[in-house]
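Hey, resending since the last one bounced:
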Amino acid sequence: MRNLTMMTDLYQLTMMDGYYLEGKANQTAVFDLFFRQKDEINYAVFAGLEQAIDYIKDLHFSSEDVEYLRSLKVFHPQFLDYLKNFKFTGDMYSVREGDIVYPQEPIVVIKAPLIEAQLIETALLNIISHQTLIATKSARIVQAARGKSVVEFGLRRAQGPDAGIYGARAAIIGGCNGTSNVLTGQMFDIPVRGTHSHSWVMSFDSEIDAFRAFAEVYPDTCLLLVDTYDSVQGIKNAITVFNELKAAGHKPVGIRLDSGDIAYLSKLARKMLDDAGFKDAVVMASGDIDEYLLESLNNQGARIDMYGVGTKLITSEGTPSLGGVYKLSAIERDGKLEPRMKISDSIVKVTNPGLKTLYRIYDKSSGMAVADLIALDGEKIQKPLVLTHETERWKTTTLEDYGIRCMLNKIFENGKNVYEQPSLGRIVEFAESEKAKFWDEYKRIDNPQIYKVNLSDGLYELKHKILKQNKSK
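The structure tokens again:
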């Protein structure tokens, strides 16, 4: 991974310069990274931690970087000299890649000298928000596919090389089981999938010639794209070639539909393939597919075994950004951390103060997730546990027998990476196991049940104390 230290907004550096000159550079600060509520995102699948770790491990300003900043004639010389030996020396906590997370939850917490914590805001939001967004879109699409295989096909429509590479990685965390992206497959040991496009067919004198040539080259992995000219005739031509393969002792894989009335054509194709004796041949569909089209195809009884999903997955069409934010929640004063809180007329922009942790509560008998609890660091969790609505405090749930998991893991300690990064395969296994612990009602595509995210009594009281103090001022 290339060095991304200079991938930041100018105002991060101007603030850092100011902190340095004001003597605030080494003040310990706490920042929370979280995301705000979006209409289409009722939950998210956290991704991008591996790349965030790589970024922080490699934080440094080269001599060329410093000279470029000097050329801007914005920064003070003593600050530029300081940057020559810059590195991250703080602590970082994070949920695991593959964790299901919700709006307002602290999914990454940075506790570090203020000048260091400030710099990394932009890159962390860029890396984590993008991969989390794509992993979430992938999870929704895979859910709507109802157990059918989904392959990520989006590289050519991705918004640049990085979006294609790391978007494909995130799509695998979300539940896709392969990608067309060869570089991502090489980098992360992901299965790569693909056969041929319309250009293969159009390069031959006829469709049947193109199919026969492809079958000759790939007799044991033959999956034919049948909609270049006429889908029904294409299916017939595919069956002709499949019979020839069968006679030669080979087993065809199936066909791919990429346009037209996919629901109707898939049912027709299934009947034609079955009648011809190819009941094991798959019907794959691709094109402008998303979770809403998949729901419609399911309702129409479409006979599709595998989906290739491109543009609407890799660009997260409909929700182009996660809405990730990075806010100061505490700062050192007289040797102690003093809570800080952003206050706004917009309720969604009011932040939670202090150094916090995040817990997931599970029902002991079923093992299913019941609620999440945002609490102050070190706050004791009582038994029985009384969960109270964040704003409507009369709404309570009392849990006697429950399991609890602290979701924030230490990633860096005093600048040293102390977290053992799991393989992508292990991340995928964890993501699937965690998704299975949420009732389907919480994962519905439309009108999902609201999952409880509660504030502890200590955090609630601190938040309202600060609000009251601000009002009196």
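DSSP finds 17 helices and 20 strands in the chain.

Sorry for the duplicate.
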